[in-house]
């Protein structure tokens, strides 16, 4: 009986945030298939922990779990080379869809040049900046919520967002003038 | 505020995470600092580019299905209902047994909830009023600050009123008071007290008046005017709507505005 109630509450409070969970996982893993695996695992964990959930903001709570799941997954899959350097790619050599194993996000997105450029730039951002930028700009979360999810002080959220935007401005800037 | 402090606060300013006084100080610095102006323009542009549609993709359907399938069997609505009552009765049988029927328990539980809710509301009245006043004054100041006074600019109520259609779950009364010296200049949506509200913007000479309206009955029919941070704030209730008017015009001008508004029924 209690299980049923729990499932219902979970369905009402946590399931509706699946798009946010997928979006965040997708930008963390940079691969749609991995993102799906991370989200599914995160939902399993979320359900296991759900009895301890005390009605705070469910989306923030879920996204923190998604992020933790990602980091566990990342360590398992990338082993010792798990440092952020793995995530630094040469943007200029990164043509969308051209022989790219991570076919997911690229394949879905061919809507416009502008989206493609921003997409490539955001992909190349270091993980610690990418996650705060994605939470802020794509998920529209407050600094306080981001601080909770990432587990850093609000001041650090702000400075990482600044660094992230600065790097994106540099990546996006020159290409713009070519048009 | 020096340049270093201002640089550190730039993202907070763009994301509207600064307090009002901090934001004002930042703007003072920004006005005289070309470096900050350039960074501000760049970062705001990056932010706008990231918010275009297409970067965010919905979760695939098969993922949703896999996750739902992995949950302990999802019950049907009827089972949910039965489960709800069942769980109520089953959770603490010994403690509830002396009171008999499930219905009595439910009624008791409900009345306890109702009592605590109304007690909570009662106790919260003065502080929530003060908080709301502060929130509205802040919103008023912000609306003047970021050049976001109106989303629809029109002196014609037949333009302003339809503009709200489909944007709100109520029809705000829009009244033209140009004859009385308070021309309507536009309208916009704002977010106050946890909900979207209608704002009609009027002017008295050079003083903007923001009139906030949303359904509810938080005040009496008799307008109360108070002063906060140099702004005059009037609050009253009419026809099931909360009215708040805020302006930097004088007390008597606001009082007259409210009187005119109440004397001219909306159409």
TrEMBL record, chain B:
Describe the location of the Putative zinc-finger domain by residue ranges: 5-37
In terms of InterPro entries, this protein maps to: Anti_sigma_zinc_sf, Znf_put
Q: What superkingdom heads the lineage? A: Bacteria
Q: What is this protein called?
A: Membrane protein
* Annotated organism of origin: Caballeronia glathei
